Amino acid sequence: MFHAKITSYPTGKGGSDLYSCQELINKLLHFYFKDPKTKINSDAVLIMSEMLKIFVVEAAVRACKQATTEDLECVDIEHFEKILPQLVGNT
């Protein structure tokens, strides 16, 4: 059986990785606002960062399961493409 392990992601323990992640989330959120003066609360950015992290981990786990179902040990973009409708579906 194939097992995947997420080896690193921003943890917020004194590293600049978390700040970079939050800055990226802030910029992504502003990209979709019509008014460039719109401000986003730092707590909202933290919540969105956590939600995005969960989304990415869930996508990785599902892609790993898809590869395992196909008796493969390497996860490829095709596995992600197969599970993508599950992640963005309206069910």
UniProtKB/TrEMBL annotation:
Cross-referenced SUPFAM superfamilies: Histone-fold
Gene3D superfamilies: 1.20.5.4980, 6.10.130.30
Keyword Nucleotidyltransferase part of the UniProt annotation: no
An individual GO BP term: resolution of meiotic recombination intermediates
Keywords noted in UniProt: DNA damage, DNA repair, DNA-binding, Nucleus
Subunit-level organization: Heterodimer with CENPX, sometimes called MHF; this interaction stabilizes both partners. MHF heterodimers can assemble to form tetrameric structures. MHF also coassemble with CENPT-CENPW heterodimers at centromeres to form the tetrameric CENP-T-W-S-X complex. Forms a discrete complex with FANCM and CENPX, called FANCM-MHF; this interaction, probably mediated by direct binding between CENPS and FANCM, leads to synergistic activation of double-stranded DNA binding and strongly stimulates FANCM-mediated DNA remodeling.
Assigned protein family: Belongs to the CENP-X/MHF2 family.
PANTHER family (alphabetical): CENTROMERE PROTEIN X
Protein name: Centromere protein X
Native species: Callorhinchus milii (Ghost shark)
